[in-house]
Amino acid sequence: MTFDRAVSFGNGDNRPLVLWKSNGNAELKAIYEELAGSMRLTGIMPAKQKPIEPHMTLLYRGRVVPDIMLEEPVIWTAKDFVLINSLQGQSIHEHLCYWTLRD
Question: What terms describe the molecular function in GO for this protein (predicted)?
């Protein structure tokens, strides 16, 4: 995974500060599309039908933080994958399934 910017996402009172990749993140979007396709095959429809923006939430500041281009991108290899049901507005995150990824 690679992220090269720190940006504020969304709008409203509780904006998250996130790490994000400025020219998209094709690898993470591909994982999402594969997961969404598998969900559809089992009769589970993904909750949102809008474009996704892969990111890593760092914190919630509640205000806009100017976009920051990082001096060095944040890069790491994912070794595990966890499917999480995030109950919005409740601060509850249920871990539904866990996979170890192959090299």
Answer: ligase activity
Domain with 42, as residue range(s), is 2-75
Residue 102 to residue 45: CA distance in whole angstroms: 27
Distances (CA, A) of 82 to 57, 76, 100: 16, 16, 9
The answer to whether residue 34 scores a pLDDT higher than 80 is yes
**Longest distance between any two alpha carbons in the chain, whole Å:** 44
The alpha-carbon radius of gyration of the chain (Å, integer) is 15
The structural domain count of the chain equals 1
Task: Give the tens place of pLDDT for each residue, 58-92.
Answer: 888 767 888 899 999 999 888 888 888 888 788 88
